[in-house]
Design a protein that fits this description.
By secondary structure, this protein is an alpha/beta fold. The chain is built from 25 helices and 22 strands. The strands form four sheets. Strands 1-9-2-8-7-3-6-4-5 form a nine-stranded mixed sheet, with helices on both faces. The protein has a six-stranded parallel sheet with strand order 10-17-14-11-13-12, with helices on both faces. Strands 18-19-20-22-21 form a five-stranded mixed barrel. The structure holds cytidine-5'-diphosphate and magnesium ion.
């Protein structure tokens, strides 16, 4: 791998639909053994659906490059494959590989397995389901998926779709990823943090495992960069079949992009020829709100317009709802009436991860929620920000998959050319990398500065990560992983949360802290339907704990369990049953990991005054770097960084405690602290004196208060020593 090879570009002719190869013994899909009527995976006869999907698969561009792809893979250890979204990379390529491995194993009877990574959970689940359907097997048997807190695989699984983060976790226990023969890193152009780390890691692993094949798949962006990184590995291009897409820009800046998007949907639905619409918005609430408004406005037109199926798509949507994006558009109400239309309102999941057929119109406000990280203030937030030109082009491409399409950009042509960056900055350069550093340390990679990152993180970001892990006690002063660090690295939680869980048995509250960790690892459990907002707020108030949101979450979990996981109790109390069920599942999984490390589950007596104190102290032992102090001005300032912050309106904390710890610092209209709990100043200096060391403290009100607390503590210690010496003296008398 160290020898620089000449770059190879394999170009293939575009093969039209007429040139679909006939199935024969050498090129048939052996894994499914379509020449036989029996499915070799489960011994059952193929269903009609299998044959229907097979016909569609045969028309996908990658289908025509199968032989060339397999030959290139045979001849090379690493292969880069680029192709337009929808050309069949994610669904077909792993099946081609599977077919070869299956054939080889027939002679040798050896075991084999393929991993295909996805940056998004939704994509991993959805694609695995689709491929299981294509192979006519049950999901979780031969084809499965693995995402954080959900493993849908079995001992039979030979093709596993998994998030890039999960593959990284697997590498921690199996550094050479020995169970896989072929690893496919999909959607590499997204340049997520985990994919970037995997790229560097797999490059190393391949040196020790010449048998391990790697396929890096990407949309048509940055392909040459991957080729350069892999020392000239061959680049295979799958010619797309994009139809022309006409681009429209607005003439002036639209300040309310959601409203502008809804207006454009209505204009298309009332005036444009048939074809489905894809709208890109930025998040769950915005999407649900837009869907409601679109349905209402279309409803106002009555039968004069065609029926519309309006479907939301975002990452926390339940799987059954996610499948709805693949439902066909509704049919006309009357034989000569206007045609029906499917309208999908999605986050940028639909940009490249999921391909939805039939889209003819794309509406692009040019925005997406992106992670940004400021190492100076240590704040990582999701901010609605302009997308890159490359993203805008991907989005418009979605309109031309099946026929010529139109893309309506809700910004001016000038701002496209002058205001957008050409590529999206890789996630590693805009994230807090503490967790990544911990993972790399666990993988035995000590020299992070010289790790072969495709684009290295900023030195300050790396320094901040090392500093956090050192303060937590996960790394020692030499930067080596401590025993505590090892345990934290095995927990699928952010390091601060991992620390609070590990410390909780010592504070006799691990049962409760475990429940809080589980509740913090699932989406928001409170529901607030538009028509019942008051009742929902009242229900939430009944769970509220005076000391803050973490304990409110604990109340919800306890009540849910006391009511025997009852679905109707959940709806009566405006909490989401599915979310609580998944919190319960997360709790069980975390409990298993704790058992592995002999971390016992225990509780302080509920009637003891220490019950809540112990829980809060455990939380503080992990989150002591996320503390804010209430100033005399009435504002909160984050400790050490002195940023003005506000308690988030969703917080149930109805008084303003002097000190709070927070789970998240988010920036929306203002700087907000979300999920906040009241703590005592004395605990800060008791539990984290190394962090609250006043020598390195900026001048501020919090420092003065802490100084007083230190003095008080010293006085107390003095009195105690005197008392002791008095006793000793009296004892000797
Ligand atoms: O990965 P790439 O974007 O190249 O394409 P793909 O995801 O493999 O999609 C190939 C085809 O499968 C498209 O026509 C999709 O619409 C279809 N597909 C589907 O019907 N259901 C899914 N869950 C995923 C893909
Ligand atoms: Mg794909």
């Amino acid at each position: 791998m160290g020898v620089k090879r000449k770059r190879k570009v394999i170009m293939f002719d575009v093969v039209g639909d007429r040139a679909i190869p006939k199935l024969n013994k050498t090129n048939c899909d052996v894994s499914n053994n379509v020449n036989s009527l029996i499915n070799r995976w489960n011994g059952r006869a193929y269903t009609q659906r299998f044959y229907d999907i097979l016909e569609k698969r045969k028309t996908l561009p990658v289908w025509h490059q199968k032989e060339e792809f397999l030959k290139a893979l045979k001849d090379n250890q690493t292969l880069i494959l680029v192709g337009e979204t929808g050309s069949g990379k994610t669904t077909q390529i792993p099946q081609f590989v599977l077919e070869t491995l299956e054939l080889e194993s027939r002679d040798k009877c050896n075991k084999y397995m393929i991993a295909c990574t996805q940056p998004r959970r939704v994509a991993a689940m959805s694609v695995a389901r689709r491929v299981a359907e294509e192979m006519d097997v049950n999901i979780g048997e031969q084809v499965g998926y693995s995402i954080r807190f959900e493993d849908c695989t079995s001992s039979q699984t030979v093709l596993k779709y998994l998030t890039d983060g999960m593959l990284l976790r697997e590498a921690m226990t199996d550094p050479l990823l020995g169970r896989y023969n072929v690893i496919i890193l999909d959607e590499a152009h997204e340049r997520t943090l985990s994919t970037d780390v995997l790229l560097g890691l797999l490059k190393e692993v391949q040196k020790n495992r010449p048998d391990l094949k790697l396929v890096v798949m990407s949309a048509t962006l940055e392909a040459e960069k991957f080729q350069g990184y892999f020392c000239g590995a061959p680049l295979m291009k799958v010619p797309g079949r994009l139809h022309p897409v006409e681009i429209f820009y607005t003439q002036k800046y639209e300040d309310d992009y959601v409203e502008a998007a809804i207006r454009t949907v209505i204009q298309i639905h009332t005036c444009q020829p048939p074809g489905d619409i894809l709208v890109f918005l930025t998040g769950e609430e915005e999407i649900e709100d837009a869907c409601r408004k679109i349905k209402k406005e279309i409803g106002n037109f009555g039968d004069s317009v065609g029926p519309a199926l309006v479907v939301p798509l975002y990452s926390t949507l339940p799987p059954a709802m996610q499948q709805k994006i693949f439902d066909p558009a509704p049919s006309r109400l009357m034989p000569n009436g206007p045609a029906g239309r499917k309208i999908i309102v999605s986050t940028n999941i639909a940009e490249t991860s999921l391909t939805i057929d039939g889209i003819v119109y794309v509406i692009d406000p040019g925005l997406a929620k992106r992670k940004v990280y400021n190492p100076r203030t240590r704040v990582e937030s999701l901010i609605v920000s302009p997308i890159s030109k490359a993203s805008a082009n991907q989005r418009s491409g979605r309109a031309g998959r099946t026929q010529p399409g139109k893309c309506f950009r809700l910004y001016t042509e000038k701002s496209f050319h002058n205001g957008l960056q050409s590529e999206t900055c890789p996630e590693i350069q805009r994230s807090n990398i503490a967790n990544t550093v911990l993972t790399l340390k666990k993988l035995g990679i000590d020299d992070l500065v010289h790790f072969d990152f495709m684009d290295p993180p900023a030195p300050e970001t790396l320094m901040r990560a090392l500093e956090l892990l050192n303060y937590l006690g996960a790394l020692d002063d030499e930067g080596n992983l401590t025993r505590l660090g090892e345990i934290i690295s095995e927990l699928p939680l952010e390091p601060q949360m991992g620390k609070m869980l590990v410390v909780s048995p010592e504070l006799n509250c691990s049962n409760e802290v475990l429940s809080i960790c589980a509740m913090l690892s699932v989406p928001n459990c409170f529901v607030r339907p538009r028509k019942a907002q008051k009742a929902a707020d009242e229900a939430k108030a009944r769970f509220a704990h005076i000391d803050g949101d973490h304990l409110t979450l604990l109340n919800v979990y306890h009540d849910y369990k006391q009511n025997n996981d009852d679905q109707s109790w959940c709806s009566e109390n405006f909490v989401n049953y599915r979310v609580l069920k998944s919190a319960d599942n997360v709790r069980q999984q975390l409990a298993c990991i704790m058992a592995r490390f002999n971390l016992k589950l225990c509780s302080t007596d509920l009637n003891s005054r220490n019950y809540y104190i112990n829980i809060k102290k455990a939380m503080l032992s992990g989150y002591f770097m996320q503390v804010a102090h209430l100033e005399r001005t009435g504002n909160y300032l984050t400790v050490k960084d002195n940023q003005v912050v506000h308690l988030h309106p969703s917080s149930r904390l109805n008084h303003k405690p002097e000190w709070v710890i927070y789970n998240e610092h988010v920036f929306t209209s203002k700087d907000f602290l979300r999920t906040v709990t009241d703590v005592r100043g004395e605990w800060l200096i008791d539990m984290a004196p190394h962090y609250f060391d006043l020598v390195n403290f900026p001048h501020c009100e919090a420092k003065r208060v802490l100084e007083k607390l230190y003095k008080k503590k010293e006085r107390k210690a003095d009195i105690n020593t005197k008392k002791l010496s008095f006793r000793v003296t009296s004892g000797t008398c």
